[in-house]
Amino acid sequence: MELCEYWLHEDCGIWAAGVFLVKGRVYGLEEAVKVAQETMCSACSEPGATLGCFFKGCPNKYHYRCALQSDGELMEENLSMKCKKHKNKRLKAPPGNQREDR
Fold first, then answer.
1. I want to staple 61 with a disulfide (CB 3.0 to 4.6 A). Which of 49, 70, 90, 91 is the partner?
2. What is the pTM for the complete model shown?
3. Which stretches make up the PHD-type domain (predicted)?
4. How wide is the angle at C-alpha 6 spanned by C-alphas 78 and 83, nearest 5°?
5. Which of 71, 53, 29, 88 is nearest to 62 (CA)?
6. Percent residues over pLDDT 70 in the chain
């Protein structure tokens, strides 16, 4: 088995989908790096994008720094983002979970 070493920016790793920390150990990082190597950034067109728009079906992907500059919305409470096109749109609640205002 050949060992490989991967490097990525801390912010790119933290914000990557599928990366999480449990009891001081990082999980999902290797997979995130592999996916990022083939994922083109919607802003700069370079590979290595780790952040995707949270809006279902949106194809936009970004590097962390490109996401900051893209006028999207980074949501720190759940480490997700919405691209510029979707940042002001609300996600629809699943059927049965909608609240009626009276």
1. 49
2. 0.74
3. 1-87
4. 35
5. 53
6. 86
Measured CA to CA, the distance from residue 71 to residue 76 in angstroms comes to: 15
Mean pLDDT confidence for 70-99: 79
Count of CB atoms situated within 10 Å of the CB of 78: 7
44/13 Cα distance (integer angstroms): 18
Tell me how far apart the alpha carbons of residues 56 and 69 are, in angstroms, rounded to a whole number: 22
CA distance 57 to 68: 21
Mean pLDDT of all residues in 14-35: 88
- Cα dihedral across residues 12, 15, 19, 20: positive or negative: positive
Q: How far is CA 37 from CA 3, 8, 59, 75, 83, in A?
A: 18, 11, 16, 24, 21
Tokens standing for residue 101: 């205002």
